[in-house]
Amino acid sequence: MNIDTSRPYLSIWRLTWPQILMMVFNFLIGVADVAVCGRIGREAQAAMGLVAQALFIFLTVAIAVSNGSVAALSQSLGAGKFGRAARYGGLCLVSGAALGLLAQAGGLAWRDGFLALLNVPAPMLGPTREILTVFLWLLPINYLFIITSAVLRAHKLVMAPLYSMGLVCLVNAWLDLGLGLGRFGLPDMGYIGVAWSTFASVTGGLALNLWLMRRAGLLRASMIPPLRWVRRAWYYMAKVAIPSGLMQVVWHSGYMVLLAVIGGLPSGGVEALAGFAAGARIESGVFLPAFAFNLTASIMVGHSLGAGDPAEAKRMGFRIWLLGTGLMSLLALCLWPFLPFLSAAMAPDPVVAAETVSYLRYNLVAAPFSCTSMILAGALTGAGATVYNLVVFAVSIWCVRLPVAWWLGWRAWGTADGVWLSMLVSQMFQASALIAVYQVKNWARFAMTKSRSFRE
């Protein structure tokens, strides 16, 4: 899929719409998990939401490697260095498999200590531990699924990960109903059946990704780079991946602290956690365009920089930002009147449904700011300038969101509304900071140049 510089918005849309559908499938996976657990019980629903959020901590390395692969592959392909791109793809796959196994071993060893840090309420502890264990066994497969999808996207083969995510969505929904609620003649395993549904569906998605890569000629023995090349290539990968990984740690560990703040509220902690789980799933539906445009920004900015055109890379980032922010704001506005209905559908318990509505109202107001953050962060990732994302996101969550959430939630208001407001305030700060960075800083200097390029 080539970029038509004379019709940039058409090129943006052609690259983005399959990724929007991919995000829809990803959204439906989460909806199915939380909705089925909601039919099992509020503890199961809250546990699934908590583990789904906590899982991002263990996926940090995979996300970092995928970000590094998109930057390196996009710039290499934009420069016409296809041999270098193939080697980077091989390096990412081998690294992902090894790091996934390490993350799995560390997670299983640290499991009980991790749950203690989360301050999980006693009624949720058993379900949370069992679900987390299944997800930890899935980690190496999940790592490779994320990285293979990133490699395919960097080659602009955006339909391939769409097919894989569609398969995951269908298999997950069928097994959620079958193993979670005992439908279709399958055994009724409850919440643990929902967890095993995710395991089976992601495994199938990885198998399809690998087959599609092989079919496209991207999976072959020659893509495994020699050790001497790896030592040099990892220098650039590390420059992109390490700040990206640290950003994920900072951001998602901050979310874990935020969940601990919610669970320790003076009253209604379990209901607020369940409302957060349901509300976050609904909210993610509004953010589908933002996630898709984030991926598009990384690809297109990387290709433009690889082609030696930093001015076009910057213009392309701003075009994607305008389209994504406008679309997301419209979706948030259209969704507003239906919040009570959607909340009741996701959370049958009326108390949890009320908390879900409250959460969504604050976070939908923040939609334009959240979209700005995601899209401009994607553009900076494509340029390899992930250090800017690290600084801005760290300050936003640790110096703005968490102090405000603690003070409003535990001191001033004593309710979950204080936590929800802190999320709005931090998103406003974060968006403003990233706009300033994107406009003022020379982030194009982080891209690979001919003087630093590797032999094919």
Structure description:
It is built from 16 helices and no strands. The chain is mainly alpha-helical and 456 residues long. α1 packs antiparallel against α9 and α5 runs parallel beside α7. It is globular. It starts with 7 loop residues before the first helix and ends in a 16-residue tail after the last helix.
Question: What does the secondary structure layout of this molecule look like, with pairings?
Answer:
Layout: H1 8-40, H2 42-58, H3 60-78, H4 82-117, H5 122-154, H6 159-181, H7 191-215, H8 227-263, H9 269-286, H10 288-306, H11 310-335, H12 339-346, H13 350-365, H14 367-382, H15 386-412, H16 416-440
Helix pairs in contact: 1-2, 1-6, 1-7, 1-9, 1-10, 2-5, 2-8, 2-9, 3-4, 3-5, 3-8, 3-10, 4-5, 5-7, 6-7, 8-15, 9-13, 10-11, 10-14, 11-14, 12-13, 13-16, 14-16, 15-16
Largest sheet: none
Got a strand count?
0
SS class: mainly alpha
Q: Can you tell me the number of structural domains?
A: 1
Write down the overall mean pLDDT. 83
Sequence of secondary-structure elements:
HHHHHHHHHHHHHHHH
Shape: globular
Which percent range fits the helix content?
Answer: over 70%
Task: Please give the radius of gyration in angstroms.
Answer: 21 Å
Which spans of ≥5 residues are poorly predicted at pLDDT below 50? Answer: 450-456
Percentage of residues in DSSP E strands: under 5%
Count of DSSP-assigned helices: 16
Brief characterization of the structure:
The protein is mainly α and 456 residues long. Helix content is 83%, strand content 0%. It is built from 16 helices and no strands.
